[in-house]
Amino acid sequence: MTDIITEQATAAASGAAATEQFRSKQRTDAVDVDAKRVDTLVSELLAAAHDIIRRHKVTYAEYDVLKSWLIQVGEDGEWPLFLDVWLEHVVEEVAGENRQGSKGTIEGPYYIPDAPRLPAEATLPMREGEAGTPLLFQGQVTGVDGTPLPGATVEIWHADADGFYSQFAPDLPEWNLRGTVTADEQGHFKIHTMEPAPYQIPTDGSCGKLIAAAGWHAWRPAHLHLKVSAPGHQLITTQLYFKGGSHVSDDIASAVKPELILDPAPVADGSGREVTYDFVLDKA
Ligand code: MBD
Ligand code: FE
């Protein structure tokens, strides 16, 4: 037995951190949605709900369950989690419709800007003896015509072997497994990290309650999150998954695309796995 008191990871704590993080981005300030569009979108959303209530003869008891669940989602700070798991993938699909370059996918609730700057070949910040299989993730950033993009930036963040993200779970160093890598003059980068594990969204909050009530599962496949950018080009937000990994074909967040599945090979000296993945960015 250890006498160190370890704070438990809770849905409410990670929800509060995700809500705070979202608010600090203030992306909402940048858009001024006109009344006509609000009218159209909200009216259609409500009409869809009315239709469901009629077709399924939703009862007052069920209506009250919904009301108390919605109240609880807010109290748990789980709106970012709920929206990013069940809606963001369609917003991303629409946003990425006309892109020629690499596929993107959802950002999710756990991105933090301004992670430590790292050179083109770097090891992500991690703990002494960080658990997991070492992974060398390397590649090149180019334009759609294949031109290398010098000084491209590769932001990367991912969960640890227990499925926890730094700054959203207790007892992790601030920037654990997060970094901002500057590619070299040819757009090349070489990132040493640890393979993440499949990720289970918090089961002890409102989203977990919904999952249990519906008989779903709470898993996302193991994934790396990335934001790749270069001067004069569109930033791409994406994720990469691992071939053969659990839940690659039944991601709770519906964010897997065939182009985003890595197939790392064992490193010759037995020290983990390596994979090359190139990013192609559209012109801004
Ligand atoms: C995650 O790690 C994630 O990437 C998404 C999209 C939702 C919840 C947790
Ligand atoms: Fe994630």
TrEMBL record:
Pfam families to which the protein is assigned, alphabetical: Dioxygenase_C (PF00775), Dioxygenase_N (PF04444)
Source organism, top-level taxon: Bacteria
Entry cofactors: Fe(3+)
GO biological process terms on file: catechol-containing compound metabolic process
Residue span(s) of domain Intradiol ring-cleavage dioxygenases: 137-165
Coiled-coil ranges per UniProt: none
First-level EC class: oxidoreductase
PROSITE patterns in the record: INTRADIOL_DIOXYGENAS (PS00083)
Enzyme Commission number(s) of this protein: 1.13.11.1
UniProt KW keywords: Dioxygenase, Iron, Metal-binding, Oxidoreductase
GO molecular function annotation: catechol 1,2-dioxygenase activity; ferric iron binding
Entry similarity comment: Belongs to the intradiol ring-cleavage dioxygenase family.
Protein name per Swiss-Prot or TrEMBL: Catechol 1,2-dioxygenase
